[in-house]
Amino acid sequence: MPALAALVAPGGWRARRGAAELDVRLHGLLPPAKGQPPGSRALSVRGYLRLHDAAFDIPARQASFRDLNVRLGLQDSLWRLDALTGQVDGMHFRATARTLYLLDYLTGQRPNTRITGQFAVDELRLARLGELLRPAGGAAQQRRPAAEGRGSVSLLPPGLQLRVGLRCGRLVLPTDTLEQVALTVRRDARRTSLSGLSARVWGGQVRGRASWPGPAARGRTAGEFALALRFGTVDYRRVARLVRRSLLARPRRAKPDAETARLQSPVRKLLLLANGRATCDIGTLLMPVGENLRHVRLRLTKAGSSFHLPSLYFVTTSGGAGFAQASAHVARGRLQSADASLDLRYATVDVQRLLLLLASLKPDDDDDDEDDAVSAAAADSAAAVRQGRATALLGGRVLTARLQVRAERVRYGALSGTDFRLASRLRPGEARLDDCSLQAFGGQLKLRGRLQTHAVGGRHPLHVQAQLQRIELPRLFEVADALSFDVLGSDNVRGTMDCEADLITDLDSTFLPAVARTSGYARAEVQNLELLRVTALEQALRFIGQKKTSHLFFRPVSTQVFLDQGRLLVPRLRLNSNLSDLEISGEYYLTGRSNLYVGLNPMQALLGNNRRRVARIRSGATARHPDRHLLYLHLRRPQGHMRYQVRPFQRRQQRQQQAQLLQEYRRLLQRQPIDTTLRLLRPPGR
């Protein structure tokens, strides 16, 4: 081989080792020297060339060939390569092929060449292969079609016509790597097609076909694809990052140079420029938080710049089932708009886990670079989501969606219920809670409101209005017990309540509210109210006797209450009980701290017929006019679980406190946009 390199094209290649066996017949004129006109007859070359364990370099292409063995049959411009084995730039290959005008093409003497045959490669770096086969500068390079520029999907040079079968252990693309690849490639000036495609990508299997127009295609012919993907277990965040980088990533430079444009993902170009369909089956989709998805099946179609997801089915690890549809519009490589609908059905749904699941659907806004800093940041972000620090709930500036959830049973923190229904509309930046209802506390609970989907300081502001109907008070106060509120226990109260409330709070990183960040207003109607062994009343009215104060019956009660970050402000609560007319005002903290004034008529309490009053209340008899001449007691407790400090004859102090409460109401309404009209609960048109 070194001797042959010194004789044939000296300086064009450097032989390292190997032997060559030649049986070649030449007939005609030798190629003219540089600057001389070509002859009238081409040189005819017939015979064969056999290489044994050849190793040589081609400096002009920075290519290194090693362990090359081949029998090359020569018939002018038609070459037959039999039992070709070796490696180029570390890529091991085997092939049997035919080429036409290959040498003239590589040297820039002809604009095209044709290769047919079967190739097997352990690893094929497609961008490097394109560099190796790119023709030298000359007439062919000057006649390069303009259509092979910015809009081209292929990484291969123009003029390279193919009809080859390919088996490849690893096919390395600029942004993707496929493994165990098998396909047939057909390529000419009008079209490139891939058929019989089978490969492993992202841990799954892909089969199908694809094609796209060549530079000589007439009209506005679009590419086509039909793919079927199947995965076992897939990490959602990894797939979301790969899809985002492969399909939606754009060069960070405002005007990418030709090299950067050429190395962009061909998968991205194909899917953005082509029309077609794809199906995908996933055994298990591992979500960052919440619950995982199983038996995921989806269909995708694309026409022009529009993507359509006609069906997406899945089940969740907690027993839910979902169906989704979606559409999206892409322009200039950017997602311009997206709309989706999601329908979920559960036997038992945990709302907190559901919100965490929805929040984890939004991929991180990390850069497209693969450097260590970005990878570390992505790892930190993934850990944050796994710990519940989700930053967005189906966020984004272009997504609109409709969400419907139904469940036989529901849990949300300490709250549980049945017959859960949820209908919500998601818009950029917010989720509208159009209708949410469930059976809870022996009655019905309805909600309407708005949730900000973009987190502010790790929290999601929430404004909601609630309607509670026929609520059983003992069951309501069971939740208060579970939340460790120092209020009435479930065994201290009886009766039912209808209530309407306006609440302003924010959900933390685990999508749970906190009383310390909650303000609101409520008005309630209470029926058949009974209080049993209430410590505050027993301590305040101990001069009356525990027998009368341990069990109180009340006529229907109407009240209004303000909530200010764990503090209840009671402007004036008037009660008619079997003991006496009562009036309560002041402030009470859910930790047990209190500053209350209780007005009552001691003579009614001491001298009244308790049994007769209880009977009249139970029978619903008309109440007499309330007594306006009440004695006011001041009940104060600096901390929970302490005895109340009781002071009598506090009417003047009670009026002063009411004036202070009025000022606090005004400040609260100025500080928070509390809606005391509860307009969201009103039917449309009222």
TrEMBL record:
Domain of life: Bacteria
Swiss-Prot/TrEMBL GO biological process terms: regulation of protein targeting to membrane
InterPro entries noted in UniProt: AsmA-related
One Gene Ontology CC term in the entry: plasma membrane
Protein known as: Uncharacterized protein
Organism encoding this protein: Hymenobacter gummosus
